[in-house]
Write the C-alpha cells for this entry.
Amino acid sequence: MLTIRRAEPADAQVIGAVFDAAVREGWKYLGELAARPMFPPEEWDDEVAKHAPPNALLVATNETNRVIGFVAVHPAEGEMYLLFVHPDHAGRGVARALLDAAHEVLRSAGCREVFLYTHEQNARAIAVYEAAGYRRDGTVRELEFRGVHQREPRLVKVLN
C-alpha cells in the first residue's frame, strides 16, 4: 500500500536518507561525490520548510508509514524540482505515483506544462520520465556542483 501526502517537518531527515540512498545507487557516475551525504541535516529541514504552499514537497509512504520516496514542485515556474525513490523500492511504481501526484498539484495551480532537468548520465531517471510522456526540448543546462561539471537536458511534458 502506497500513500502520497505533503511532507511534514518531521519527515525532513528521512527524506535526506532517501536522497542519500538513491544517489549512492543511481548517481555512481559522480564517483566519490555520490558515496557520502551531499547535504547536512539542517538543509533537509530547510528544504521541507521552503516547500510550503504554493510549492509542494510530497512524500510516498509504504504500509508501515515509512517515507520511501519524494517529489518537489514549484508551480509558479511549472518545474518539477526533485524526484527520488529509495532503491529498495525502485521498480514498484513509486516514482510513477509521485509523478502523477506532482502533475495534479501543478494542474491544480493552473500549469499546462511541466519541465525538469536531470543529469544526462541518469539513464534510469530519463527512462522513467520519457515513459511518463516527457520529451527533451533541446535545452541543456550546464553547471558545477561540488566541483563536478554537469550537463542536464531539460525535459518537458504537456499536462492534460
